[in-house]
Amino acid sequence: MGCPLRYSKVPPKEIHRRSLAMLEKMGLADRATHRPDELSGGQQQRVAIARALIGKPALLLADEPTGALDSHVSKEIMDLFISLNLEEGITIIIITHDEKIAQQCSRHVMMKDGVLR
Questions:
Q1: Which of 6, 94, 95, 97 qualifies as a FRET site for 62, CA 20 to 30 Å off?
Q2: Is residue 94 classed as helix, strand or coil in its secondary structure?
Q3: Domain co-membership, 43 together with 63
Q4: Contacts of the segment 77-85: beta carbons below 8 A, 24+ positions apart
Q5: 62 and 32 co-located in one domain
Q6: What is the span of the domain harbouring residue 38?
């Protein structure tokens, strides 16, 4: 989980603290000691998002973040993205083929025949 910070100057105890805090934010604190194969698809996706966010980026690129998830977990992921955008000011660019997901976004850019519209 804290791998992105291991090559920075962040001390190991701070990496551990941030990792646990991020898992808590994702609703996964109780799964902190589980291996990936012990997590559901939605939980694995939230861990991937947490790993992407642990370095406190201003921008998150999410390529089909809900593509392999059921509708309930997809809603949870989108609610999380909306919350991160509104509460923490993180810009999130979502690439999706799912129109229901796109409708939840505040701005839309479409690519058709190689042209952005």
A1: 6
A2: strand
A3: no
A4: 77/42, 77/45, 77/46, 77/49, 78/104, 80/26, 80/46, 80/49, 84/53, 84/60
A5: no
A6: 1-50
